[in-house]
């Protein structure tokens, strides 16, 4: 019997049940939930980094985005509010489209 002890998507218990298996779950409190989302973010980002194909990378990025949506909600915001902040920062500091790699800065 595998023990997972990790946050899973909402429909996973139903999928396990449809497979004819039994399981144990519990509902996390707000603090536990935020911490588990943070752990899940690292897990999904690591899976993205290790993706071997564009298709796999996009699947993992979709998972990362789902985690970001949930984390935004934990902080009392929507993904639209996060996008507004991202847009403002991009206007002020730029994005990453130009592929600029800063090597060093010289003090004069």
Automatic annotation (TrEMBL):
Name by which UniProt lists this protein: Phosphoribosyl-ATP pyrophosphohydrolase
InterPro entries referenced in this protein's UniProt entry, alphabetically: MSMEG_1276-like_NTP-PPase_dom
Top-level taxon of origin: Bacteria
CDD domains (UniProt xref): NTP-PPase_COG4997
